[in-house]
Amino acid sequence: MKIRIVVDDQTIPVTLDDNPTARDFAALLPLTVALEDHAATEKIATLPRKLSIAGAPAGTTPEVGDFCYYAPWGNLAMFHKLFNYSAGLVRLGRIETGIEVLRVQGRMSARIEPLPR
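RE: above sequence
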């Protein structure tokens, strides 16, 4: 499934992985979130509820462009820098282009929505 993150007038396309956690996330869309900086590595956003992590790996090592769910906190994590292995981190998909939009410091509002078919 393809979704997009819209920040101001910029669109960031994301391809979701085919896994139960990504499908559970897609069921929340459309969604408006506040993106905040975390560890100078990622933008994070609180979700309205925790996602199912049934069958998910114990953790992952995120790469630049990974669109993830951090189960211990129940938040989205969008990585714009490399980071170490994190237990409880579930990859939801991959940001295709536009990662530079997330590198801007500070809080920003974003709308996450499915792409029209």
